[in-house]
Design a protein that fits this description.
Blueprint lengths: L51 H11 L44 H4 L11 H11 L5 H4 L23 H4 L13 H5 L10 H11 L5 H4 L21 H4 L36 H7 L10 H7 L4
Length: about 300
Amino acid sequence: PRLCATCHNTTAWKPSSFNHTTTGFALTGGHAAVVQCSSCHKGTVLNTSTNCITCHQVQYDGAKDHKTQSYPTDCKLCHNANNWLNAVFNHSTTSFPLTGSHTTVTCAKCHTNGFKGTPTNCNACHAVNYNATTNPNHKTLGLAVTCGDCHTTTAGWKPATFAVHNTYWPFTGAHTAISNNCALCHKGNYATTPNTCFACHTAKYNATTNPNHKTAQFPTECTQCHTTSAWTPSTFNHDSQYFRIYSGKHKGRWNQCSECHNTPTNFAVFQCLTCHSKSSMDSKHSGRSGYSYTSTACLNCHLRV
């Protein structure tokens, strides 16, 4: 500039001074130690580039991995003006912040082909883990390859959530309260977990005495009587819905359901004739129109006895 007072004073031409901060490029750290303007301004002070690489191409080329890994040429992304070696890169300024176990890996672990175009999808790095997992088998089940759907970046992949569980086995009623306690049902093995009520509730079935499910040979499909909201009340009321066995003439006349329901897998099938002999029934029904010695006929006439 031709305004001499910008750098000189009337006492003497030398020493001169220039407040470099007024240019928008403050001299800090190592830059402040540069005493010769010509170190950066090669013959002119006009239009001097402020890009780091303009002055530091040699350092960039000589630094480990910078050139081969296509490091950014904006040095201040990692370095500061005080010390080149004290380099830190704030990965949070990118679209992929480092959390959990990602903070402990080396740059080259993920950036195998340079820093440009590095994929951010989980499967790009963890396809081997996905394919090798057998508990449950991710590949066989066709689970999503977006690991973040179930996992966090915490080391060891655990704990994991399974947001799409309803696709395989829906959580309803009381089951929703244990939806985050996977081990309660899966016992550490997710590949062969049965999905039947009895598999999880065998102990309750065997311990029930009112009525005694095991002795009476009740069906092991709990949903025939119970809901997932609560075990009680159940929807099985034999007296009001079907036939009076806890009241009326049949009260105290039986011990096991199998005495009438002799097909355990189908309680719609029942048998009256085991207790009521043909000779006795023929005698009692002598002259009765439409009488037949069959269980269904008994029920049709004696539904409320």
